[in-house]
Amino acid sequence: MRLTRAELEAHRGEGVPDVLSEGLKLLFIGINPGLRSAAVGAAFAHRSNRFFAALALAGITDHVIDTSSGFRQADLDHLAERGIGITALVGYATAKASELSDQQLVAGRKVLESKIDAARPRIAAMLGVGAYRTAFAVPKATFGPQDAFVGESRLWVLPSPSGLNAHFTLAELAAAYREAAIAAGIEPYPSPTDRAMTASDANDRARRIGVRRGSMSEGSA
Length: 221
Hints:
Layout: H1 5-9, E1 26-30, H2 35-40, H3 51-58, H4 73-82, E2 84-88, H5 102-119, E3 123-127, H6 129-135, E4 144-150, E5 153-158, H7 170-183, H8 199-209
Parallel strand pairs: 1-2, 1-3, 3-5
Antiparallel strand pairs: 4-5
């Protein structure tokens, strides 16, 4: 589905439906929807976003889900069967996450915590360390499990899958996501990422490249 810039801009400020189901184990939290996601009504719809490719490479899903024209019901069913949910820190669309202010990220946290309380996943994983640091007022937060909970749900920080985040390869994203999935009680399908980077390795890499506080190169979902 091709959309012009004007058609995409018409969806600025719109939301995208959450992907939530009973028995949720792992809730992925994007920063906010991109314009294409708002246009088609599905998260991570921009073809440059590596989220669903990382899930498949990690063995979290058994195929690469394509949301560029919206979700197929079969894919929503597959995510539900696997105990996977998707939401966003900020619920309305922008072209880039860098357009969001710190105040908007902090305000999004309050709504997000209500969603986590209701969904009760084992792990709620923020896709982007910069956004997590700002929203949760933890300026020194690093990748991996956090010493923080929302209700019974443990918070976790993962690298952003945005195509604008050049600091992490697809294999590195997949390894970090796989680690969170296993901790959430999801048994991965066989995957070549067993030997790839873990969240602790991601922290070492982040320190080497110097992840900035805002980290708004993370992009929108």
